[in-house]
Amino acid sequence: MTGFAAMPAKQAWAWCIAFALSLPVMAVQASEDASPLLHPLFQDRMVLQRDQPIRIWGRAAAGEQVRVELMGVHASGQADGDGRWEVLLPSRGAGGPHVLRVESAGRVQQVEDVLVGDVWLCAGQSNMELPVWRTLDSRAEIAAAGNDRIRLLTVPQVASAVPLDAFAEPVEWRAVSPDSVRDFSAACYYFARELQKTVDVPMGLVSAAWGGSRIQAWMSADAMRAIGGEDEALGVLALYSQDPVAAAARWGTAWARWWNARPHAVAGDEPWQPGHVADATRGWRDAPRQLGAWERWDVPELAAYDGMVWYRTTIELGAGQVAHDAVLELGPADEMDVTWVNGIAVGSTYGAGDAREYRLPQGLLVEGENVVVVNVLDTWREGGLSGPADAHAIRFADGTRMPLDAGWRFRVAANEPSPPRAPWQSAAGLTTLHNGMIAPLGGYALRGALWYQGESNTFEADRYAALLRALRADWRERFDPVLAFIVVQLADFGMPASQPVESGWAALREAQRQVAMDDDASALTVAIDIGDRYDIHPPNKQELARRLARAARHVAYGGHESPSGPVPVSAAREGDAVIVRFGGVGGHLRALGGQAPIGFELCAADAGSCRYATAEIRGHDVLLRAPVVNAVRVRHGWADGPVVTLFDETGLPAGPFELPIPLR
């Protein structure tokens, strides 16, 4: 299954449905049958951002006057034609508890125990989602948790093709206790606990994370359009919100175009087409009847295989059957599928544990033989179309069900480039998590955002800097123009290399570093020494949180210490050597575990030219030598799971980087 703990998507296409599902129990409600006046974010134990105007909003009958009171200050607003209202209250300093009271047309809603302090959004994929119970010394951490001045809110994991105004499931602000922190984001909780040691104000934490998610899923449609290249996919997504069947067919056409444009594509080799000959000459073989993870099929090339596999089967149908509306049922596919019936794409889903149901358009099924083809992409651990055989079938509107039991054939599609993802997929699509998890936050005022994501984008590291800049700009436009933005650089994962290598992980870390250097309100938290070569989810989130808090003190609170320890400033030639200058050093540079640091490389311009360099510390500089003619680049920690030994006296490492070496 996927290593990022993806959960099932819960689609919500209309605001009225989402809002009805998301109504929490409020402290005071004058009319039992009336909807709450306040957006679900505003409820008991909430935290409001200090020192910023306080925006309050909700729903009432169109045209109704709404009166809001907080800390003795009153404001009034009027619901618009859609029933939406909002007011702006003056900023307040940290403190509480307070009472928020709202009145409209004889209805009263009152929210108790409101604190004013600093609110942080904690977002990303599984390493941000990872709960406290999975971290180091978790039993003691949970047992000792108790802090009424840290409040927690977890955003429900919901994907949507369109932006939602409210959460599709109930939410609740909770004070820190053993019960509330157990399943809460560990990085987020430990961060606030550490930060509060020096920033003595209430903390509100909003966790919005989804394991295995790509950055594109967290961005708005406007942000995606701003960087370009996704207009067709965004158009398909817009169609999907109205007509999923038509959108699937249109996406199939785009996917087919990608397949046929691959560098080593063979003309006419389209495995989804009914006329495709699925015989041994094209690499097709019989699959085990019970299917399941292909790593368990006793097929040598699949024993440790991550990539694409084609599945194909047929089913005979009669004239009476094809006259009915029908649904294709498939068992879970680990982790992503694109599915065709009779040459027409009918669906695509992300999620290792999710069964698939794809509605078949009228006229697609034919009397006689029908061809079902499933392309499964797996990127982590076990993959494949699950069994048993009768988990896959065509279900007709009259209630009958025809299993796909004629037997499946398979074909390995090894060494293929990464295929495009259907834009409506939950964690792998475009805008889906922004729409379902960020949009419902409205313009809730924040102090900053912590971003721990990137593992799911390492195959496209060349795009990541543009994507991350667009995400940051997107969130600053929504929440605060100077929102503090702290990026966790990917931790080490995998066995250390024994010679210089090219690495998508390292390239993505460099993209993260470059973006964090853009402005004074952004910072990078280096985690290259606290990962786990055997586990993509390192459990030492306490040390990560200490580093996050250090970065926050620098970018959000005017702290003078370096946000992330030693950072490369420049590289220059010095005789037959190259000297790298570091800034942000606490005390002196030092090498751990030896007389000199390791992990440095000097490189010529072409790929494969890098060589390990010997290194010598000179104050805040490192002098490098390597057998490379005309070196133009210096790299450090350049691998999926590198070993780095250059630290400063505060215990922070010099993280991975690549720098150009200017010509004399």
Please count the helical segments: 13
CATH topology of the largest domain: Rossmann fold
> What Rg is obtained from the alpha carbons, in whole angstroms?
27 Å
Report the biggest beta sheet as strand number plus sense, adding barrel if it closes: 12 strands, mixed
> Uncertain spans, ≥5 residues at pLDDT below 50?
1-33
Total beta strands? 36
Report the structural category. Answer: alpha+beta
Instruction: Tell me the β content.
Output: 25-35%
At the first level of CATH, the class of the largest domain is Alpha Beta
User: What is the averaged pLDDT score?
Assistant: 93
- Report the CATH superfamily of the largest domain: SGNH hydrolase
Keywords:
664 residues, alpha+beta, Rossmann fold, Jelly Rolls, 3 domains, twelve-stranded mixed beta sheet, 30% strand
Molecular structure report:
The protein is α+β, with helices and mostly antiparallel strands and 664 residues long. It folds into 3 domains: 1-21 and 118-227 and 428-560, 3-Layer(aba) Sandwich (Rossmann fold); 231-413, Jelly Rolls (Sandwich); 567-660. It contains 13 helices and 36 strands. Strands 1, 2, 4, 5, 7, 8, 9, 10, 11, 24, 25 and 26 form a 12-stranded mixed beta sheet that branches. Helix 5 packs across helix 13 (541-557). The longest helix has 18 residues, at 461-478. The two termini are 52 Å apart.
